[in-house]
Specification:
3-stranded antiparallel β-sheet; alpha+beta; 5 helices; 14% strand
């Protein structure tokens, strides 16, 4: 379920504030946003109700995590997975280390 607050901006967009305090401004009118939100609450899939948003914006509505946070988390996970001393490609014989 979506847990955020939203308000129109002075330039006709919508500012969304997640329950964690993160903000995202999306380019849509208040009425369009409210209609999509009502459709979602009435059981429409997020990608159907908010078809006009990017997948990153829809993800923010669901999780409150912005694209930069996702990228940071994915980079950290990839770095953790990149080095596995037990993996055969990461092991070296002592002879390999002596040049």
């Amino acid at each position: 379920m979506i847990k955020h607050k939203y308000q129109p901006t002075c330039d006709g967009k919508i500012k969304i504030v997640s329950d964690r305090g993160k903000e995202l401004v999306i380019n849509c009118t208040l009425s369009r946003y409210q209609t999509a939100l009502a459709e979602y609450k009435a059981s429409a899939l997020m990608q159907d109700a908010f078809l006009f948003l990017s997948h990153e914006e829809r993800e923010f509505l669901i999780t409150g995590i912005d694209p930069l946070e996702w990228q940071t988390m994915c980079d950290e996970i990839e770095a953790d997975e990149a080095y596995d001393p037990a993996h055969p490609d990461c092991r070296h014989d002592q002879d390999d280390l002596n040049v």
